[in-house]
């Protein structure tokens, strides 16, 4: 970054500068064109007389200049409409949900809540209003979807609770969970009504079930998704990269394309369901070996998968979400993984 001159105006002679909300892009130059140094104020010679500092709650600075491009929602409360949407965790799935919502509801606003500012510029390009995890219950939204994974937080259920506190109860709040909690591991049939693993048996599943319970207590809904995929993401891509995988080939997998998971999420939100659990899958389960045979035969990928070598790991389940499809009025764009491969 080029050297930049900053001018401050203060209203008191007793001033302590605490730039804790300033972006790391200020690290090269902090005052009056000084070069970067271990003490950024060592080259400053400023006589403070009459100064005032405006309150800044969050400032993001572009890479090429120090022009402010965004302020936090907490500094200027937005005007939130009846059809606006808050996406907590606007990653791959969250962004697709936002795009689908914008397509189906012209003129709506979509807000994206993130843990860091790393991708805020990308969200702005997608017409998503980004902010850090903000003033928990100050802003109320009629529609909320929680797409953030549990890996980014030590208390997933508490994060769900904070997101739910931003829901005004008018539209729908939806948590995108996983189909992992269903208590089936013998490649047998499984649907929305299959019992779940009892809490206390599997810690990673406990995390999901406790988070689901929070959403249901608030009156929201849960969407348990099968394995998400697109051309460059998903189980098939992981296996291609590995080449040889120490897992059993006959384990049954269940899949749903990211676009279909997004369209199902939007359909649930628009119907304003309450306290219901839905299942998202393509109704075409297949074994690991069958999936990778399709990948190799498709000729659509530069790499070839070699083999599975495992014999002792657990089996899977055969998901069917006919009940969800009937209740929501939804059908997938990609009815099977094989259909997807043919389309690319």
From TrEMBL:
NAD keyword on record: yes
Keywords: Isomerase, NAD
GO MF, one annotated term: isomerase activity
Gene3D superfamilies with a match to the protein in the record: NAD(P)-binding Rossmann-like Domain (3.40.50.720)
SUPFAM superfamilies: NAD(P)-binding Rossmann-fold domains
Family listed: Belongs to the NAD(P)-dependent epimerase/dehydratase family.
Protein name: NAD(P)-binding domain-containing protein
Annotated organism of origin: Lupinus luteus (European yellow lupine)
């Amino acid at each position: 970054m080029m050297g930049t001159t900053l001018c401050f105006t203060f209203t008191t002679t007793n001033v302590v500068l605490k730039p804790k909300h300033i972006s790391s892009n200020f690290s090269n130059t902090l005052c009056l064109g000084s070069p970067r140094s271990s003490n950024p104020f060592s080259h400053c010679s400023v006589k403070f007389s009459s100064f005032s500092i405006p309150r800044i709650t969050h400032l993001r600075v572009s890479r090429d200049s120090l022009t402010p491009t965004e302020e936090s929602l907490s500094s200027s409360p937005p005007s939130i409409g009846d059809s606006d949407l808050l996406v907590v965790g606007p990653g791959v799935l969250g962004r697709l949900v936002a795009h689908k919502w914008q397509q189906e509801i012209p003129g709506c606003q979509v807000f994206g809540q993130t843990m860091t500012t790393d991708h805020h510029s990308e969200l702005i390009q997608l017409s998503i209003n980004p902010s850090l995890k903000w003033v928990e219950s100050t802003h109320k939204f009629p529609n909320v979807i929680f797409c953030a994974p549990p890996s980014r937080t030590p208390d997933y259920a508490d994060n769900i609770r904070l997101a739910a506190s931003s829901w005004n109860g008018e539209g729908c709040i939806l948590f995108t969970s996983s189909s992992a909690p269903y208590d089936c591991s013998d490649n047998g049939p499984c649907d929305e009504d299959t019992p779940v693993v009892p809490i206390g048996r599997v810690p990673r599943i406990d995390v999901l079930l406790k988070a689901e319970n929070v959403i249901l207590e608030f009156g929201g809904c849960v969407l348990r998704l099968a394995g998400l995929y697109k051309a460059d993401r998903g189980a098939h891509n992981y296996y291609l990269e590995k080449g040889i995988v120490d897992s059993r080939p006959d384990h049954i997998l269940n899949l749903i394309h990211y676009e279909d998971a997004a369209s199902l999420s939007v359909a649930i939100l628009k119907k304003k369901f309450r306290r219901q659990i839905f299942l998202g899958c393509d109704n075409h389960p297949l074994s690991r070996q069958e999936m990778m045979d399709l990948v190799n035969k498709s000729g659509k990928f530069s790499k070839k998968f070699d083999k599975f070598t495992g014999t002792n790991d657990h089996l899977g389940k055969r998901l069917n979400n006919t009940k969800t499809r009937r209740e929501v009025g939804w059908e997938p764009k990609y009815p099977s993984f094989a259909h997807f491969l043919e389309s690319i």
